[in-house]
Design goal:
This protein is an alpha+beta fold. The protein is 25% helix and 18% strand. It has two helices and four strands. It has a four-stranded antiparallel beta sheet, with helices on one face. Helix 1 (47-58) crosses helix 2 (66-74). The radius of gyration is 20 Å and the shape is elongated.
């Protein structure tokens, strides 16, 4: 055993993979649990609204076109009409 003047902290790996949580202002989008929280309180949002929020948060560093949003959130073959 080495006799060092300090103890090195060795990080212990977690057995769980990190959760994907996107955050902005006081909002969090938990991609794994598909939950939207504001100020720590869960807020019910419809599935497509959740997908839209997640897409916009993931692409917050750039301007996205409505065509990109439509292709990513509504995907081809959706029964919804495009506006």
């Amino acid at each position: 055993m080495l006799n060092l003047p300090f103890e090195a902290e060795v990080p212990v790996p977690s057995p769980w993979p990190p959760r994907m949580i996107l955050s902005f202002d006081d909002c969090e989008i938990d991609l794994e649990r598909r939950e939207f929280r504001r100020a720590g309180t869960a807020v019910h949002v419809e599935p497509q609204v959740f997908d839209l929020l997640a897409y916009l948060a993931q692409n917050g560093d750039r301007v996205v076109s409505k065509d990109e949003i439509f292709a990513s959130v509504w995907k081809a073959g959706s029964s919804r009409t495009r506006r």
